[in-house]
Amino acid sequence: MKNILITSAGKRVVLVEFFKKTIKSFDNEVMVYTTDMNPLLAPAGVISDKCFEVPRVTAPEYISILLSICINNNIGMVIPTIDTELLILSENKGMFYDKGISLIVSDFSFIQLCRDKRKTGNLFQELGIRIPKPIDKHNLTFPLFAKPYDGSLSKDLFVVKAADELTPEIMHHPKLIFMEYIDKAEYKEFTVDMYYGKDYYVKSIVPREGVEIRAGEINKGYTRKNFLVEFLKERMSYLPGVIGCICIQLFYRESDDDVVGIEINPRFGGGYPLSYYAKADFPKYLIQEYFKNKKNLLF
User: Fold this and answer.
1) 18, burial (CB in 10 Å: exposed 0-12, middle 13-18, buried 19+)
2) What is the pLDDT of residues 200-250, one digit of tens each?
3) Which one, of 273, 293, 296, 248, lies nearest residue 16 by Cα?
4) Do residues 30 and 4 touch, judged by C-beta distance below 8 A?
5) DSSP letter string over 132-194?
6) Which of 232, 234, 233 is nearest to 249 (CA)?
7) CA quadruple 155, 249, 63, 60: dihedral positive or negative?
8) Is the pTM of this model over 0.85?
9) What sign does the CA torsion over 73, 76, 79, 83 have?
């Protein structure tokens, strides 16, 4: 088997440890490498078998440097971890594939939908999943919620309960979209980890109820086998071009099973370890599919 590379590793220590534990159970000689802009300050880089220094993902030379690292170190699988690298990696999947390297990232068209919250909302509606009702910026009703259409890490999020709470920062922010406020006293916040095989069919669905949220990711929570599993399986069983791990953020009201879709992150989420400990071993599924050519038939 070939080695594995986890990009933009940063603080994803536990994710790296999962991949190391899993791959070495198949072959103790296989390595799990990482990349980071500053390997000495990246905890996940320190615990990986080796961390390679790379430029910012937006640098023109990023892809060529990454490809060279893969070729020179017998890399067979690349696992991205941050939103900003997904578009450029998906755009260059063919270049890596030609060298026998599997970039575990969904197709470019799907990544585009996920990176623009307006397009994500349209996708949810096409799938039969309710989204927060949009609110006209020039005819506001309260309370409301505002967020950037292309944001991440929970930056520039605003809950506005009355007109006197509106600020020039909110009203003149060029990227904010306004929508119905989902009351957390009624709804529970969930992130759902889903694994898609090479055939674009979902193989695993694990809802994680958020207890503590940090930078847009569940920091503390519980895994729940509840209504959401069948709800999402029914609507998202097959998604063309989608592979590997994606995580969906939504709100769920148990009293009437109302589900409100918020966003889709087509990568490993920061709270994925909760799903792993609930026996959703996505590293194992990836190794079986991409290195062992074995289908995962989990549903």
Assistant:
1) buried
2) 999 999 999 987 766 555 567 889 999 999 999 999 999 999 999 999 999
3) 273
4) yes
5) PPB--TTS--SSEEEEETT--TT-S-EEE-SGGG--HHHHT-TTEEEEE---TTT-EEEEEEE
6) 232
7) negative
8) yes
9) positive
